[in-house]
Each structure stands twice: as C-alpha cells, then as structure tokens.
Amino acid sequence: MSVPRIDSRTRRMAAAGIAVSVVAGATALIGSPPASATAGCRVDYAVGSEWPGGFGATVVVTNLGDRLTGWRLSWTFPGDERITQSWNGTHTQSGAGVTATNAAWNGDLATGATVSFGFNATSGASPATPSTFTLNDVVCTGSATPTTTTTTTTTTSTPADRPMVDNNFAVTREGAYGDIRFTVLRPSNPQAVGGPLPVLAFGNGACAHTNNSEVTRALTIIASKGFVVVDIGSVNGSANGLPSGSPIPSLLTDAISWAEREQNRSGSPLSQRLDLTKVATAGHSCGGLEALVAAQDRRVSAVVSLNSGFFADGSFGYPRSELAKLHTPALFLDGGSSDVAYANNQANYDQATVPAVLARQPQAGHVGFISGNQVGDGMTTVVQFLDMVLNGNRTARSYILDPSGLASRSPWTVAKKNF
C-alpha cells in the first residue's frame, strides 16, 4: 500500500503520525431508472498519537466524484481497535466494523471538496491501518469512474435551500418558567415555524447576569428567524441571585438543561417543539468567554464568540488553552481595530483547531453588533452561521464561506479554516 502526501491541514492535526492513503469510489444515487454518475474518493487515514492502550486518528476524505449531499464512510479494523470518542461526525461500531457519518454541517461535498473527522480509540497493540474503505456502500475502486445504478433508497436527504434568515416570526419575550435566572425569546407561535426549533444559550456583555436589556434587540432578531434563545438575566432586570462581572459558564449549560426540561413539561408552549440535537452557545464580550467554555458541553453543536476571546494571560480564569477543548465549529466576530476585543478575537481564531470562521466589520467597534448600526448585519451573520452548522443549509453555507457571500459585502472581511 502506498504512502500518500498528507496535506498541511492533516499534517497539523496528526503531527508525527503515520498516514496511509486509499481510494474509494462511491456515491448514493436516487431514482428508479438506470442513471449514470461519476464516483470516486481519496481517503487519508493518519494516526496522530499513541498511548498505552489507545490512539487518536484523523481521516480526511476527498470527493472525486459527483456532488454528495451526505456521506457514510465504512471500514473494518484489522485488530481489536474500538472507538471511544469521535468528532466532526458520528460513528457506529459493531465488532471490528465501523461506519462514520457526516455531521449536520459537513454533509455537502462538491467534486474536489474535502471533509475531515477524527476519533480516539482503544487498542491492545500498535494500531494497524484498515485496508479498505467504502463510501456510501460502494467499495473502493481506486479512481473516479462512471457508474450506472438503479438505487431506489438512500439514508440521506438534501438540506432545504430556504435559509432561516428569510423567516420573520413574531417574537415573545418572557421569563423562563420556574427559573428567574433566565429570559426566553422565542417565536410567539412555535407551531407556525413548521418544525422543531433549535436552541441558543446566550451570555451578555460584561457578564451581566441580571439585566439583559442591552441585547434584547439583537436576540429578538435571532428569535424571529426560528430560534429559541435562552439568555442570562431576569426578564425585568430584577435581582435573581446572580453576581455580575465575571464569567459563569455553567449558567449557559444550565440554560440548555432548562430547555430540556421545557421540552417535556406538560402545558409548555415549547413542549415537544425543540430540536435538542441542534443546540448552540453564543455570547458578547465577557459573555463570549462563557459561550466558549460552555461550548465544551457535548450537547452543543456550534459556538459564536462576539467581540470576545480568551486573554493571553488567562484573565478571568480561562487561558487560551481552553480553545483546544472545543469540538464544534466556531464563529469569531469582531468590529475591527477599534474593538477592544480585536486582538483577542484574532488570536483565538488563529489558535482554534476546529472548523472556524473569522468575520470582521471594522465599523462595528465593540458594541455595534449588539446595540449599534450593525445589529442587522451582525445578527444576520450569526443566524446564517448557525443555519449552516446546525441545519446544513446550502444557502447559508454559501453566504458564510463563498467569496460571493459575506466576504463580498464591503467593508466585511472573512477568513475560514478546516471547512
């Protein structure tokens, strides 16, 4: 078996590891009459680290065939390897057989596009490399080739092209049922949304844990697009037993737990209306630190840091090493050089190892996205990012990642990595 050249991204993620390349031909075709297609892919499998009884690996898949709207990569371990944790996708394992499937945000693979995922596993010996991979049930062929198929079933679906940002639901702002620590902003008629609602737990600037009036306008925009937003602070700004001024990330994970209870509470307007597989954290300034730490919770699938970032000296008790604990895609937003968080935001993006986007609007400063003239643009960017990651929406993905999207809207600048 040949040893391939590992690209720079894989090298960073699996430094000092071993890498083996195989090629897989695959696509999942839908329809009753025979149809022609081109299938093929490249798989780079790299063991990045080993320790007694275990190892970590990274897998990079390059699609050489027709566009895929969902991928499913399968292989058989040659030894006793057993996966204990995976990221940027989900996995199932039965005996030595493993199938990894896409996350909500990385299932769309155009021709020539790549996707990466990783895992940790136990092993009683030095880990061996699987000899064969299959993509969407088609065995590896070694090249991109035309195929004919009459497949009539598939386990994937095409994401809707209508983005959430096009919604404009009436919004209700109310105190969280049974918990005066939180304020909830939601579509007034959840049933009118037409499907389950994703959840966003939000931390306020200055780590304000009582009064959230500063963010009401911004969070109302997000809720009007079909989100349930749970924000720290009582609905009328009255005392709720919380101190302000320092990060308390557990408040955001408590907000998620509140949503889980509300999902099952009889009589709740949100009962069985939430999609608890689509949960995100976000926060402004000091609240962004809360969001970045809370995003380490396994219930979270995306994180947004607004005018924020961990300090180099570990101020507020959280060093930049916290970034290594992220497991979800991240959006880092700042308002340019006049934003006091400008340097931190840039440094946090640079240090992040997850798929990340850095978006900058130099006219926004530190509060423009929250209470200034850039609220609309800022919240549109947040909604589009969350729609891309949580729902796999193609239109939102193009807006965030394509040069013709946000990056073309002066004076915005956009950088991305690992997507």
From TrEMBL:
Entry-linked SMART domains: CBD_II
UniProt signal peptide: 1-37
Entry keyword set: Carbohydrate metabolism, Glycosidase, Hydrolase, Polysaccharide degradation, Signal
PROSITE patterns assigned: CBM2, CBM2_A
Ranges where the record places region Disordered: 144-163
InterPro entries recorded: AB_hydrolase_fold (IPR029058), CBD2 (IPR001919), CBM2/CBM3_carb-bd_dom_sf (IPR008965), CBM2_carb-bd_dom_sf (IPR012291), CBM2_CS (IPR018366), PET_hydrolase/cutinase-like (IPR041127)
Bias kind Low complexity: ranges: 144-160
Protein origin, superkingdom: Bacteria
GO biological process: polysaccharide catabolic process
Domain named CBM2: residues: 34-143
GO molecular function terms noted in the UniProt entry: hydrolase activity, hydrolyzing O-glycosyl compounds; polysaccharide binding
Protein name according to UniProt: Cellulose binding domain-containing protein
